[in-house]
Amino acid sequence: MDQRNILIIALLFVMYLMWQAWQEDYGSKPTVETAPTTTTPMPGAPKEVAVVPSLPDDSTLAAGVSTRETPPPDRTRSELVHVVTDTLDVELDTRGGEVRSLKLLKYPVSLSQPETPLVLMDRNKRLVFTAQSGLISKQGAPDHFTLYQPEQNEYRLTDGQETLVVDMSWRGNDGVTVVKRYTFKRGRYDIEVSHLVDNQGTEVWQGRQYRQLERSKPGESDTTAFVYTFTGAALYSPDKKFEKISFDDIQDEDLERVITGGWVAMLQHYFVSAWVPDAKQANHYYTDYLKNGNYVIGLISGEQVVPAGGQTVFTSRIYAGPKLQDVMSELAEGLNLTVDYGWLTVIAQPIFWLLKYIHNVIGNWGWSIILLTLIIKLVFFKLSETSYRSMAQMRRVQPRLASIKERYGDDKQKINQAMMKLYKEEKINPVSGCLPILVQIPVFIALYWVLLESVELRQAPFMFWIKDMSTPDPYFVLPLIMGITMFLQQRLNPQAMDPMQQKMMSILPVVFTVFFLFFPSGLVLYWVVNNILSISQQWVITRRIEGVKSK
After folding, report:
1. Which of 196, 156, 146, 153 has the alpha carbon at shortest distance from 176?
2. Are 255 and 286 a contacting pair, CB within 8 Å?
3. Are 188 and 87 in contact (CB under 8 A)?
4. Which helix (H) or strand (E) is 263 found in, with range?
5. CB-CB contact of 7 with 508 (8 Å)
6. 103: CB partners within 8 A, 6+ apart
7. Fewer CB atoms inside 10 A, N or C side of the chain?
8. At 453, is the secondary structure helix, strand, or coil?
9. Is 90 exceeded by the pLDDT of residue 509?
10. How far apart are CA 351 and CA 25, in angstroms?
11. What does the angle CA 506 – CA 508 – CA 510 come to, to the nearest 5 degrees?
12. DSSP β-bridge partners for residue 237
């Protein structure tokens, strides 16, 4: 493979990363399915809750979650219920029982602030991100603006205690009482959320449960310029599987779809919050763009009927925590896909499994990346050998190619004919050097996404000055080594015939070094190790072929 092919492949890889980021922001939008029935606004609920589409069985509902234009109620009357487990620090607002704040105790905000947990959910000037839920009923029911009465304002999971139950109650005027119950468990990031309806009135009670996530759009300071990851909404359905929905998509068009099972979520780098209903339950899924500039994705359950003197329970789970694939796959089908490897998931997931297995053995993510790179290199050893052998043969005939160009000047037809004749005489196939590299590119890209998306590498140390594999090298040592190895690898390749190509190839290591200054050190470590292994293999093959010819 000549220098032109190497340049093309390198540029294609960079262009792929740029295209991936562009697609997330400006690419084609997913098709939004609308409900087959005509939707009419439901009277009686605040607009700021969310514009939830009316349901097919609209006659059973006299009030919804959606269209009252009055301002939201005064939140100063509400109280906060503080809940602390071994994994979560949560504040529940008695106004609607909303998850007002949620901190991840085992995930510090940064290495320089090890005692400060990362804030996943909050309601402040910089970030609005909350989990809301409530009931819809023509007889009246508490939504997430209704004031609940808590049993106490402080809960802590004590040593030896496995479960923590937090109850808030609401009493209607018609004999209906509702207990909103949060059930926390030790070591877990999923929380069971139930509405226990007790109808002690004289009439039948009919109602549905809705659950939704409300979030503001992240600011520019919350995004990384050189490493793009998706922040936005997502849903999963058995027929269409995992679908991402950008904030712009939500703003442009409301989603309305009936799905059995599935889930809705808000995604960000390394972390996810998701409402997970019963897998056998049909729900009405929706999105909305609110007047306050926030975005909502949610779902409404089917109707339950409670006779006078009867009881019923609406139950869902909310997962709020790191994107741990093993944990999420046990909680709901497809939830592990929030670790977004894109169209190369089928390759990336086995790579991640192998990387995690290596880490379980040696206990260091940096050395795990090195061993994984070595294993991948061994898998593709024969393909790489074919490519490097072709390059070595091209390098060997380089003086004769230069002579051909000098002999025929600008006559490209004669130059090509003479080159083809030379290749035939020397039994060289230029394409054989390019195809093996092309075969490996999907694996390299898949590994790129594995190292970028895996929360396990967040704040994971390697050795010496590298304390966090998910952030750039603070002293730029690895990017500079990568640039040097890339330059050395070029020296082993056949030099381009065109002077302009030679200049472009000489600039390429500098361009890549600048890019990699801002890449996570785990990614750069992989590239450095891969380059060193490639140089070693290519040097041995080149010396062997040139040595045989000299004899």
Report:
1. 196
2. yes
3. yes
4. strand 263-268
5. yes
6. 88, 89, 90, 117, 118, 119, 120
7. C
8. helix
9. no
10. 27
11. 90
12. 241
Among 365-374, 465-474, 495-504, the minimum mean pLDDT is found in 495-504
Q: Directed axis angle between helix 345-362 and helix 365-379, to 10°? A: 130
Residue with tokens 């500079």: 480
User: What's the mean pLDDT in 357-375?
Assistant: 96
Alpha helices in 140-280 (DSSP H): 247-252
- List, for residues 210-226, the tens digit of each pLDDT value: 999 999 998 765 555 55
Place of tokens 């763009």: 289
User: Token pair for residue 550?
Assistant: 């000299």
Average pLDDT over residues 383-388: 75
Report the pLDDT value the prediction gives residue 434, as an integer from 0 to 100: 64
CA–CA dist 516, 479 (Å, integer): 6
| Conformational region of residue 440, where left means phi above 0, alpha means psi within -120 to 50, and beta covers everything else | alpha
pLDDT at 18 over 80: no
Closest CA to 209 of 85, 298, 86, 310: 298
> pTM here?
0.81
Name the strand (E) or helix (H) holding 181: strand 176-185
Q: What is the mean pLDDT of residues 475-486?
A: 94
- Determine the longest span between alpha carbons in the chain, in angstroms: 104
Phi, psi of 7 (to 5 degrees): -60, -45
The Cα–Cα gap between 232 and 250 comes to: 9
- Give me the percent of the chain exceeding a pLDDT of 70: 81
CB 217 within 8 A of CB 266: no
Strands lying side by side in the sheet with 232-237 = 149-150, 163-171, 176-185, 190-199, 311-322, 271-276, 263-268, 232-237, 241-245
The chain-wide mean pLDDT, for the chain, equals: 83
Q: Hunting for tokens 């019923």 — which residue is that?
A: 312
DSSP string computed for 60-113? G-S--SS-B-SPPPPGGG--EEEEE-SSEEEEEETBTTEEEEEEEEEEEEETTE
In angstroms, the CA 514 to CA 512 distance is: 5
pLDDT of residue 14: 53
pLDDT in tens, 186-209: 999 999 999 999 999 999 999 999
pLDDT band at 114 (very low <50, low <70, confident <90, very high): very high
Q: What is the pLDDT of residue 50?
A: 42
d(CA 382, CA 374): 14
- pLDDT for 371 beyond 90: yes
| Residues belonging to the chain | 551
The DSSP bridge partners found for residue 271 are 268, 322
Confidence of residue 549 (pLDDT cuts 50, 70, 90): low
Terminal Cα-to-Cα distance of the chain (whole angstroms): 25
- Give the DSSP per-residue string, 130-153: EEEEEEEETT----TTSBPEES-S
Tokens of residue 13, six digits? 């890889």
Distance between CA 124 and CA 189 in Å, rounded?
Answer: 23
